[in-house]
Amino acid sequence: MSESVYKFIELVGTSPTSWEEAVKNAVETASKSLRDTRVAEVKDLDVKIEGGKVASFRAVVKLSFKYQTGDA
C-alpha cells in the first residue's frame, strides 16, 4: 500500500452572484494548476459593499491536494 501526503492552501473566490459561485470559482481555478485536488472546506463568507449595496460575494476556501515529490 502506498502512502500519501496532502497539502492545504487557502484561497479567496469571488462572484457577483452568490457564495456558491465564489466557492466554485476558487476550486475550479485552483484545479487548473493543481493535480489531485481532494477536499474543499469553506472557512469564511463575506460580501464586498459598494454604495450601500452588495457588489460581490467572497468565500475563503481551504483546499487540499495530493502532494507529489519530484520522483512521482
Structural description of this entry:
It comes from Desulfosalsimonas propionicica. The protein has one helix at residues 19-31, and strands at residues 5-15, 37-50, 53-67. It is an alpha+beta fold and 72 residues long. The protein has one domain (5-67): Dodecin subunit-like (2-Layer Sandwich), CATH 3.30.1660.10. Strands 1-3-2 form a three-stranded antiparallel beta sheet. The two termini are 15 Å apart. 11% of the residues are buried. The model has no long low-confidence stretch (mean pLDDT 92).
Secondary structure layout:
Elements: E1 5-15, H1 19-31, E2 37-50, E3 53-67
Antiparallel strand pairs: 1-3, 2-3
Summary tags:
1 helix; single chain; Dodecin subunit-like; elongated; 72 residues; 3-stranded antiparallel sheet
Any idea what the CATH superfamily is called? Flavin-binding protein dodecin
Taken from the alpha-carbon principal axes, the silhouette is elongated
CATH class: Alpha Beta
Structural class computed from helices and strand pairing = alpha+beta
Over the alpha carbons, how many angstroms does the gyration radius reach?
Answer: 15 Å
Question: How would you concisely characterize the structure shown here?
Answer:
18% of the residues lie in helices and 56% in strands. It is of the alpha+beta class and 72 residues long. The longest helix is centred in the middle third of the chain and has 13 residues.
